[in-house]
Amino acid sequence: MPIRSPRFFTRLGNIKEIEAKAVIPNTRSIARVEGSKYNAKDFIHGEGRERFERVFFADLQRVCADKE
After folding, report:
1. What's the pLDDT band for 4 if we cut at 50, 70, 90?
2. Whole-model pTM?
3. In the chain, where are the structural domains located?
4. How far is CA 55 from each of CA 2, 8, 11, 50, rounded to the nearest angstrom?
C-alpha cells in the first residue's frame, strides 16, 4: 500500500534495509513452510503451482501488514 510507505521507511530504513529485514526473511520462511506441503511435480503442474502462489502471496501480504 503506497500510503503506508512512509511508516516502513521510518521503522525499517531504506529499500535495501526493508528487503533485508522484512521481505527476504519472510519470503524464505513462507516459501519453505508452504513449499514443504507439495511434491516437486506439483510446482510444475499448473494447479498446484497456482495454489502455492495464492497462499504464498496472501501470507506475505498478511506478514507485511502486521509489520506496520
Report:
1. low
2. 0.67
3. 2-66
4. 22, 23, 27, 9
